[in-house]
Q: What sequence folds into this?
């Protein structure tokens, strides 16, 4: 053993995906006007490839078991924010007992936004419908009343103002995925654009 | 019955170069969603996003999206029925063969 050898310091581990910079604030990105969604008219619906639907009202949704994930988020516009605190319902809860053979999901939002991802990426404790951020109700500019939270993919997949998920046997590209962005969007593989 | 033939996209180079050389802010677009017709300059553009999103000022439907990668760009006009572009008179137009 060499004297003074301390091994590789943990700080040498890459903290950020390639091409990202750290930000302390929380930039607001939006492809359109902020939809005004009142909790008393809000609903979340899972639609299977056979057309079967499961719906939750706001009261039903907030009565489901809650998680409080602390996660790093990575926006394709190159900012990353570490250790963000959320509260929401795991997609494992929302998809529990849903009869499906679908391999893909198309997420849709109030205001018309859509984004696609493999259904497997919504399972396994890696995705939530989040309605609180930093101990407060999620502000509308950040997607409130509720947004998808899928922190292991670029943040455009974490659809703001989420309204539901359509389960699909074929992958159907969403709003940004039809305009040049990557179908999957893994920040650690820097899958920003189609073909990356 | 005559079989329809087509040309490859290279024939678009000339027409598109001419088109995109003009100031498109003077162009008029028709919204595919509501039919509103107005200048591109009047669209509502949301720039704080992964790309530029231009919406109809009347119905807020997306009329144009432009995504710029370092080495590529994507222009999506599916929300625009047409662009009407002011042109100098008497420019001969390429015709389909």
A:
């Amino acid at each position: 053993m060499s004297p003074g050898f301390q091994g590789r310091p943990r700080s040498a581990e890459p903290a950020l995906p390639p091409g990202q910079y750290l930000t302390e604030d929380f930039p607001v990105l939006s492809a359109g006007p902020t939809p005004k969604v009142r909790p008393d008219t809000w609903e979340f619906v899972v639609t299977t490839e056979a057309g079967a639907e499961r719906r939750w009202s706001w009261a039903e949704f907030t009565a489901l078991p809650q998680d409080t994930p602390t996660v790093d988020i990575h926006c394709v516009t190159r900012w990353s924010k570490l250790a963000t605190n959320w509260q929401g319902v795991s997609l494992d809860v929302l998809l529990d007992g849903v009869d499906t053979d679908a391999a893909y999901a198309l997420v849709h939002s109030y205001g018309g936004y859509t984004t696609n991802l493999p259904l497997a990426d919504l399972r396994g404790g890696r995705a939530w419908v989040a309605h609180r951020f930093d101990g407060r109700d999620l502000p509308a500019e950040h997607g409130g009343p509720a947004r998808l939270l899928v922190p292991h993919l670029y943040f455009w997949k974490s659809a703001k103002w989420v309204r539901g998920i359509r389960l699909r046997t074929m992958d159907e590209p969403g709003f940004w995925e039809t305009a040049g962005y990557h179908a999957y969007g893994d920040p650690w593989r820097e899958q920003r654009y189609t073909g990356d | 019955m005559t079989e329809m033939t087509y040309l490859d996209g290279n024939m678009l180079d000339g027409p598109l170069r001419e088109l995109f050389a003009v100031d498109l802010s003077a162009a008029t677009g028709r919204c595919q969603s509501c039919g509103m017709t107005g200048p591109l300059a009047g669209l509502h553009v949301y720039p704080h996003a992964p790309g530029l999103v231009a919406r109809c000022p009347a119905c807020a439907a997306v009329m144009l999206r432009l995504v710029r990668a370092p080495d590529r760009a994507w222009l999506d006009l599916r929300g625009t029925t047409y662009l009407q572009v002011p042109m100098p008179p008497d420019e001969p137009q390429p015709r389909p063969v």
Summary: The first helix of chain A runs from residue 58 to 62. The radius of gyration of chain A is 18 Å.
